Amino acid sequence: MSLRILLVTFLILLHVGVVSAQPPHVVAFYNVENLMDVEDDPLTADEDMLPLADREWSEQRLRTKLQSIAGVISSLEMPMLLGLAEVENGRVLNLLVGQQELVSAGYRVCHYDSADRRGIDVALLYRPDCFTLQRSLAIKAEVGFPTRDMLAVWGRLCGVEVVVVVVHLPSRIGGEKFTESRRMACQRQLRGVIDSIRRAEPCRRVIVMGDMNDNPRNKSIREGLGTVALGYKAGVGCLYNPFSGVRWRASRGSSVYGGEWNLYDNIILSSEFLSGGELQLVGRGRIFKAKHLLDSRGHPLPTYRGVEYMGGVSDHLPVYVYLQ
Predict the structure, then answer these.
(1) Which string of b and e fits 145-159 if b means at least 16 CB within 10 Å?
(2) What is the DSSP letter of 277?
(3) What is the 3-state secondary structure (H, E, C) of 172-232?
(4) Measured distance CA(70)–CA(166) in Å, rounded
(5) Residue 174: CB partners within 8 Å, gap ≥ 6?
């Protein structure tokens, strides 16, 4: 074998080794529990999160919460995409990305004010070194009453054309069965939006993330959105839920209500992320369950429990996936 062939072979093997050694990228979602400023917005019912309210929300408590959330994001290896729920406005988002721990990532913000009664919205933070924003759109949820908009963001993620949709679906207040139809309506609407995008741009991949207020096996996610579990053999255009196989009941959920764990926070991917080629899903969905985010019972430590200040980061834990 000639020296030239040996050299070319060595360079090819070196390139393959470098590529395979690259760490996976993180895509994450986090319901940050009432990340609100201390100003009274006359257009929303935010009175419970003001300095003179029973909760005594203050600039100092806001700063503490921002620093804590920034620490979580840093511990998540600076996700290239991070969906957020329960953020009040652009001001708190800009304060968040300006935290010292996050400055090096250069996060940018995509956010719209929605019609939610309390003024809490969803948002997307993205790293411009990984994601190039093309356009974005706030989509009104068609459920018959004001609720959070869905946020759709088009862009290039590591060179791959994607659309990212961030949601926070209607809560279960009033009972699961009574409120199920609202979440089902949202998921069916979302599926229609995704199908329209895919018809117009068949090669664009889809990432859906958010607080679904339903577990992966509930009807709204399985039937309304039309997701399938990992390992299920289905054709192009399917939406896979990497959290469908996570055994979340045994203290592995992302939130607790009434002493019971739930996995309402999900990240769902279109089939291209599992079919080979660029930017592939690695393993199942993951829950970030660091000890400092938990109380003595091992449950997420909230910022507030009722009107009592607990000093925690959020009543939810972040969820994330790896893309290689």
Answers:
(1) eebbbbbbbbbebee
(2) S
(3) CCCCHHHHHHHHHHHHHHHHHHHHHHHHHCCCCEEEEEEECCCCCCCHHHHHHCCEEECCC
(4) 20
(5) none
Q: Which of 167, 168, 246, 233 minimizes the C-alpha distance to 206?
A: 167
Q: Return the bridge partners of 151, or none.
A: 138, 166
Number of Cβ within a 10 Å radius of residue 47: 13
For the domain made up of 23-323, give the CATH fold.
Deoxyribonuclease I; Chain A (3.60.10)
- Least reliable range by pLDDT among 14-23, 67-76, 148-157: 14-23
Spatial contact of 319 and 289, defined as CB atoms under 8 Å apart: no
At 202, the amino acid letter reads P
Look at residue 105 in the predicted model and tell me its pLDDT.
Answer: 97
Going by their DSSP bridges, the two strands 108-111 and 121-126 should be labelled as: antiparallel
> What's the Cα-to-Cα distance from 41 to each of 49, 129, 204, 213, 295, rounded to whole Å?
11, 35, 38, 26, 32
Q: Single out the residue of 83, 31, 27, 61 nearest to residue 300, CA to CA.
A: 31
pLDDT of residue 249: 57
The answer on pLDDT for 15 being more than 50 is no
**Does the pLDDT of residue 238 top 50, yes or no?**
yes
d(CA 216, CA 54): 36
Distance, CA of 184 to CA of 195 (rounded, Å): 16
DSSP annotation of 253: S
CA distances from 264 to 95, 156, 274, 279, 302 (A): 27, 27, 23, 25, 16
Q: How far is CA 45 from CA 58, 89, 117, 157, in A?
A: 17, 14, 6, 37
For residue 316 the two structure tokens come to 């939810």
Rounded-to-integer distance, Cα 277 and Cα 142, Å: 36
Q: Where are the domains of the chain?
A: 23-323
> What are 81's strand-pairing partners?
27, 126
